[in-house]
What we know:
The complex is a heterodimer of chains A (80) and B (402). Chain A has helices spanning 2-17, 37-51, 57-60, 66-79. Chain A is mostly helical. Chain A has one domain: Non-ribosomal Peptide Synthetase Peptidyl Carrier Protein, Chain A (Orthogonal Bundle), CATH 1.10.1200.10. In chain A, α1 crosses α2 (37-51) and α1 packs across α4. Chain A is globular. Chain B has two domains: 5-240, Thiolase/Chalcone synthase (Peroxisomal Thiolase, Chain A, domain 1, 3-Layer(aba) Sandwich), CATH 3.40.47; 251-399, Thiolase/Chalcone synthase (Peroxisomal Thiolase, Chain A, domain 1, 3-Layer(aba) Sandwich). Chain B is built from 13 helices and 15 strands. Chain B has helices at residues 20-29, 72-88, 92-95, 109-121, 131-135, 139-148, 163-176, 194-202, 235-240, 266-280, 298-312, 325-328, 335-349; strands at 5-14, 17-18, 35-36, 49-50, 99-103, 154-157, 182-189, 226-234, 247-256, 289-291, 320-322, 351-352, 375-376, 381-387, 392-399. At the A-B interface, α2 of A face loops of B.
Amino acid sequence: MSLDIETVVISAIATQKQLNTASIKRESRLQDLGVSSLDAITIVYEVEEAFDVEIPNAELEKLETVGDIVDGIGSLLADK
Amino acid sequence: MGERIVITGLGSVSALGVGVEPFRSALLAGTAGIRNLEKIDCSGLRVVIGAQVPHFKAADHLDEALLPYLDRFSQFALIATKEALNDSGLTAGQYENAAAIIGTGCGGKETDEATYSQLYRDGRSRVHPLTIPKGMPSAAASQVSLQMKIKGPVFSVTSACSSSGHAIAQAALMIRHGLVDVAIAGGTDAPFTCGLLKSWDMLRVLSKDTCRPFSKDRSGMVLGEGAGILVLESERHAKARGADIYAELAGFGMSSDAGHITDPSVDGAARTIGLCLQDAQLSPADVQYINAHGTATQANDVTETAAISKIFKENAASLAVSSTKSMHGHALGAAGGLELVATVLSVKEGFIPPTVNFTEAGDGCDLDYVPKEVRFGSIGAALSNSFAFGGLNAVLAVRAFQ
Lengths: 80, 402
């Protein structure tokens, strides 16, 4: 399941930033990928749609790496 | 009176193609861009024709990385602005403090409608987070500023089918009064959405076959889309940098009918034409050509003809009046921009674009509408008319530059 989340998150980032998925790792920092706050809410939207979860606004500000998004979604799904 | 204003750059996106060159060629050849609608997801749609930008792919003209942020109306505005600025020969430093006044009648309706469809048709609870920044009516103006690094006064003007005319007049005022030396002005619209097509259809003004302005058998307007953007400059600034000058933007007239939300008014239109001539210090005898509003609706064509006759009196008989909407359709907020581009080319190059599809003159339509074929001859001055729903009128005057 975790891998699936990672694939979806990476693909959402790749689409938004016109990047190759291979260049995006779990450890990649969002800032280094050129992800602005507007990009971040768009990426989060795509992921929310895919997994039908709601990431609270307060959590959004804490996201620094690709892995943060993946783990956040993972724990939201575990709580469901 | 303040600074004289000249036109030094043109940009256009329309049913006649992307760029001024295909636009110009079509005006000369009398080729219409009215076709069967390209595929549109809209059940029960009765509208079958339109003047869409043919086979438009934004990625052919704009950086792909930008596209997620751009509604179609912003894409058109950006493409036409880039062309106009490139055409003007201005450097980035020379337009950094320019004004950019972008008219739009509709705003980012593709974006808005996609969101409403998601919410109300698909029953989803979440909508795309870029809905506001893409769909807001000022998005096109903002994107022009962002992408071209234009930092002067930038905003949108909206007055339905006169949006471009009012935007250009606003930009001209800024130059005239010394606020800026350079202004990018015109309009953009992308109204081929299911909701807008159906809404226009319900006004019973859309033609089922084609656009025949001023003709007896005219059957209504044909919707168009695109952007018409011009670079305006103070004459002083243009001359100092040795710019190629297309023509002078000699003046403008603006007024409101305070009459009816859809019906046009002879008095309102005539008053606006009169104000424009006065502002441009032109007499009716000085004007050889009017690029008419000419929508091919029952109401417009008779009213506009009467308004022109009221102001031009005995000079009306020798005046050429054509509607290029017969070729590029009615591009709403972009119409006045596209039509000013046509008018400027006409004055600069000495040709009068025809009213194509013209059959025989309709009742109350007794002017020379330049039927079917382009005409050549020197034009000293020309007007471009825009008379919008809600009675909002804007008329622009172009004079040959000496």
